[in-house]
Give the backbone structure.
Amino acid sequence: MTGFYARWAIMVGGIILLAMMTFQQYQRDLSTISLATVLNSPTTSEHVRIQGMVKSGTLTGAIEEGQATFELIDGPTTLPVEYAGPPLENIRELKTMVLIGHLHHETKTFKAEDTALINNFGFVAAAYLVTVITLCWAMFAMSQRVMVLFKEIKDEKLYEPEHEPLANKE
């Protein structure tokens, strides 16, 4: 029985380790920070991902060549953005975007160099979590039933000598 629980402990530990690594990758590569957090952060030149909506009437520049200026809004916070990067095929006013770049602290302007997909991963993560938990519970329940069945078979009399009615009796 201890081998059974050891296998399950290793499996649960592996799932927890995988979940931790996935969360770290999400925080490092996919999560966005709010405009207020960027504006209030100390002076750093690291690239960050911000998400906001392009304010109506502020989009100007040569969008086809990858040069644009606009204001990004997120609730009450507004941040001027200067985009210089790959041509923006789908930029328009009142569109929510994720921009990658850094804040120029002297001018309080965000220098964006690239765009990214909007991350709505909450429902996907929840679906995976429910699926993994359900599968683990089903596997655990099945293995428990197999162990009980094995124990019942082991406790029963497995071998009985055959009674031969035609055998010679001496």
